Amino acid sequence: MENGDIPENANEHCPGPQSESAGKSDSCAGCPNQEACATAPKGPDPDLVAIAERMSTVKHKILVLSGKGGVGKSTFSAQLSFALAGMDHQVGLMDIDICGPSMPKMLGLEGHEIHQSNLGWSPVYVEENLGVMSIGFMLPNSDEAVVWRGPRKNALIKQFLKDVYWRDIDYLVVDAPPGTSDEHISIVQYLQATGIDGAIIVTTPQEVSLIDVRKEVSFCKKVGVPVLGVVENMSGLSQPLADVKFMEVGSSNDVTKDVISCLREHAPELLNVLACSEVFDSSGGGAERMCREMGVPFLGKVPLDPQLCKAAEQGKSCFEGNNKCSVSAPALKSIIEKVLASMTE
C-alpha cells in the first residue's frame, strides 16, 4: 500500500490512512485496518528530506534494471561505472540487490568493509573517482545468506540513500535486483522527488527473457521513470577464431592445437577473424523489435564475450589494459555514448 492510498478492504467513506482522523472517525468503526491507521505516523516521511539533502550533491541518477535474472545486468552496471570513471567523471555505484550483491566481486573489492565518520557511511573506492556501496561489504563472509523480508530490505535502501556520503558526484548508478518488487518501488519512491534521469533495462535476446522485460518497461511507465533504453546483452557468442576450442565430432578429444597449427600454416589470415554463433533464439526479433512495439529506445547489442566474463570475474574494467575486450568493449562504449547523449538532450 502506497502512502495515502486507501486499502482495498477499507470501510466505505474511509478518510485515508494519512488523514488526522484515520482510525478515529465514525466511518472507521469495525474496519480491519483501524488500529494500524490510528497508530501510524501521519504526514510525509521525514527521511525523504534527509535523502533529498544527500542527493543534492549528485548530478545524475541512473537505474539499471532487468525483468529476468541472469541477463548480465550487474556486469553492465559495473562496466558502465568503470566507463564513466574512465571519462574522468565522479561516479558512485549503489548495489541494492540485497539478496544477491555482486558488486564487491565485479569491482575487485571483496574483503573490504564500510567505514563510518561524522559525515556518514563512506563508500568503498575502486579509484579516487569511483565509489561503491553494497550490503556485500557488511556480511561476515561472501557465502552468508541475506534472509530478509521486504520492510528490512527497504530500510537498508533508505539508509544507503540518506547515510552514505558520496561527496560531489556526477553519476550515481543504481544496480537493482531482477523484477519489479519491493526494492524497485522503494528506490523510485525515495529518489523520485530528487529527480531520476532514467533507467537502462538489460535483457537477452530470447522471448523467455523479453516476457519479463516488457513488465519492467511497463513498471517504469507506471511509476514515471524515463526509459533511457534497452540493451540486448549476450547477443550471440563472438570471439577471435584463435581463441576457439575445437573438439573432434562425436568425442571429447581436444584437437585445438592441430586446427590452429593447420590454420597458421595454410590460412593464417583466418586467425584474425571473429567466430560468431547464436546462443539464444532471437527469431522473434529480440529486444529491437520489442522496443519498436513498446515505443522505447533500443541502445544496441553486446555480444557474449569470454573476455568480458573474465574481466567481471577479476573485478576489472573491460576498457583498459590487459583486460581490454576487443569484441564487447566497442559495443558497450557505443551504448554508453548513446545514454549520455540522451541525458544531455
Could you please describe the fold and organization of this structure?
The protein is α/β, with parallel strands linked by helices and 345 residues long. 35% of the residues lie in helices and 19% in strands. It has 11 helices and 11 strands. A hairpin with a 2-residue loop joins strand 3 and strand 4. Helix 7 (207-223) packs parallel to helix 9 (286-294). The longest helix has 17 residues, at 207-223. The mean pLDDT is 91.
How do the helices and strands line up, and which of them pair or pack?
Blueprint (H helix, E strand, L loop, with lengths): L33 H6 L7 H9 L2 E8 L7 H14 L4 E5 L7 H4 L8 E3 L2 E3 L1 E4 L2 E5 L15 H14 L5 E7 L6 H10 L6 E6 L3 H17 L3 E14 L15 H11 L7 E4 L8 H9 L3 E7 L1 H9 L13 H17 L1
Parallel strand pairs: 1-7, 1-8, 2-6, 2-7, 8-9, 9-11
Antiparallel strand pairs: 3-4, 5-6, 9-10
